[in-house]
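User: Hi! I'm working on a homework problem where we have to compare a predicted structure to a textbook description. Could you give me the structure for the chain below?
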Amino acid sequence: MTTKGKVLVLVSSGHGLPLKDSKVYTGAGYYLNELTVPVRALMKEGYEITFANPKGNTPQMDVHSAVADFFGGNEAKLQDYLKFRDTLTGLKNPTRISDVIASSLDQYDAVFVPGGHGPMMDLLDDPDAGTVLRHFHKTSKPTAVLCHGPISLLSALPNSTEVVAALSAGDAAGAHAKAQGWIYSGYKMTIFSTAEEQQREPLEIGGKVLFYPDFALSTAGGDVSVLAPWTSYVVQDRELISGQNPFSDQALLNLTSTGTRWEEEVGFSGMRTGDAQKEVIEKGTTLGGRARWGQTRFPFFDNVN
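Assistant: Happy to help. Predicted structure tokens:
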């Protein structure tokens, strides 16, 4: 069957997020809506999806993500997406990222990294993930990252392990110095905010993260911006499209729905949020232009089947 193109989706191999005070959040993984909403829509558009992670093992879903709140409060929609998730054989048996690289990254039109705390466990300093991201940067192909997914951008540093170690040790100056030359330095981007993380720490993960994602990307040289907690927010700068939190999945999808024309133009397909809708587009001097979309958080799923 002829496909419209191929999209590479990077997920974590981890099964435990290290926290401060030697604690571990064992439930860490991908967020259900962040992975399935974009993937399902891309598949409906005719794209072939390849799931890949460092070890080729089945990735873990964060149990806190299997709730109706992330699907517009619709329990039936939650169950529908859980059933859809279960049909994804490639997610159950992902390809090793190293094998994807060996088979040629040129075959892919875009790369997508969904969130949940999964990327904080391994993708942030995985050398193969770094190879993938450097390829998509060099070829100016769409790179979409959502919620905690943007932390994977650190892997593009040749010494990402050292940078992450410095961040984990609280050595911001050392991390900044080691991150010189980062390919995403100066890029406008967003990621799960400190305020959002601090709200979830006592409720979800039962401890303190080693460092906050937005601080990490800022320290590395990113031009990071966030909106109020749980507001949908997406930023595009050149090939990079980033979304702030789980409620940004639909806004991110509206950009990804323009297909591989991301690098040619900025387009939005019309989110429906009633009276709460607001649209902000900025085209500045940044190469390729940039776009920002910010809006109130509920609901985001009424135009996705």
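For your comparison, note the following. The CA atoms of residues 236 and 265 lie 11 Å apart. The longest helix spans residues 32-44. Good luck with the assignment!
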